[in-house]
Amino acid sequence: MTEHGPSDDARAPEGVPHPRTIRSFVRRAGRTTTGQARAMEELGPSFIVPYRPERLDYAAAFGREAPTVLEIGFGMGEATAHIAALMPQVNFLCCEVHEPGVGALLKRIGEQDLANIRIVAHDAVEVLAHMIAPASLAGVHIFFPDPWHKLRHNKRRLVQPPLVATLADRLAPGGYIHCATDWEPYAQQMLQVLGDEPALRNTASDYAPRPHYRPLTKFENRGLKLGHGVWDLVFTRTAA
């Protein structure tokens, strides 16, 4: 459902002149609707933050001081807009490379008069590496990332140890990572990888109840009606 950037553990060895990274996303073909294109033109300048390889000043980007949550891969923005409306006291910095998805979220921002969302239309791994300061995030949302079902493609999955270590570094003490997936083998991998990160603590014995703020999307409801499961994982950054 979502799209993401190259995994840190996919980098070529030092000395390789043109390292080839393994990407955890593909740029999906998709048509931008007239409404999405209009939203891009009218709202993009106010709500899209250009990617720059330098630390982002959240207060300048959002026009206020507030806890900031990073969302990696928001798809068409349905859950993002719902959560932002529910939590107006929180800033949401959202990464997505799929242009129709960016346009769709901008359209929702306009329709719902949301002021607490900013979008970086760029590879989330590079955004994390260069724009997000250590210990600066209140939370991270990763909802329904591409599960890469085939065994030979598992290495493309976003949630891998190097990324989780970076996320933990960017979280303030007490900050959280909330992942959700409808693919049980990926849920099992997430549970192991998050559990192996010493800077994180599971808030549940294994999988967490769905937090109140995460809505059931149309995509998820269809799956549940077909008997598919959904697994939420919520880990917090330890104080040490």
Strand-helix topology:
Elements: H1 34-47, H2 58-62, E1 68-72, H3 78-86, E2 91-95, H4 99-112, E3 117-120, H5 124-130, E4 137-143, H6 161-170, E5 171-181, H7 184-196, E6 200-202, H8 218-225, E7 231-237
Helix pairs in contact: 1-4, 3-4
What does this structure look like?
There is one protein chain. This protein is an alpha/beta fold. It has helices at residues 34-47, 58-62, 78-86, 99-112, 124-130, 161-170, 184-196, 218-225, and strands spanning 68-72, 91-95, 117-120, 137-143, 171-181, 200-202, 231-237. It has eight helices and seven strands, in the order ααβαβαβαβαβαβαβ. A seven-stranded mixed β-sheet has the order 3-2-1-4-5-7-6, sandwiched between helices. Helix 3 (78-86) packs parallel to helix 4.
